[in-house]
Amino acid sequence: MSKSAAGFLILALLSGLGHFSLFEETEISLPLIGCGVFSALFVLALVAGRKIKFDPVLR
């Protein structure tokens, strides 16, 4: 896992926890939207990391 993917995972978890600790009665809040955005960026960083790290030996 790349450093950016780990950072997005931590941000997604923190914003999700922030939503559940601060806004228990509301369904949609800014931290929850941030959690969705950071989760999507986490998945994109994982996919990009796979494509960048693939290095076949060319002879």
Task: Please sum up the structure shown.
This protein has helices at residues 3-22, 30-53.
Folded structure, characterized:
The protein is mainly α. It has a domain at 3-11 and 25-53. The chain is built from two helices and no strands. The protein has helices spanning 3-22, 30-53. Helix 1 (3-22) packs antiparallel against helix 2. The longest helix is centred in the last third of the chain and has 24 residues, at 30-53. The chain crosses the membrane at residues 28-49. InterPro entries: PA3371-like. Keywords: Membrane, Transmembrane, Transmembrane helix.
Tags for this model:
single chain, 59 residues, mainly alpha, 2 helices, elongated
Strand content: under 5%
Major sheet, described briefly?
Answer: none
Q: Tell the overall outline.
A: elongated
Question: Structural class, from helix and strand content?
Answer: mainly alpha
What is the distance, rounded to the nearest whole angstrom, between the alpha carbons of the first and last residues? 28 Å
- Our Rg estimate from Cα atoms comes to 16 Å
The number of helices is: 2
**What does the average pLDDT come to?**
84
Query: Which bin fits the share of residues in helices?
Result: over 70%
Strand segment count: 0
Order of helices and strands: HH
Contiguous low-pLDDT stretches (5 residues minimum) are none
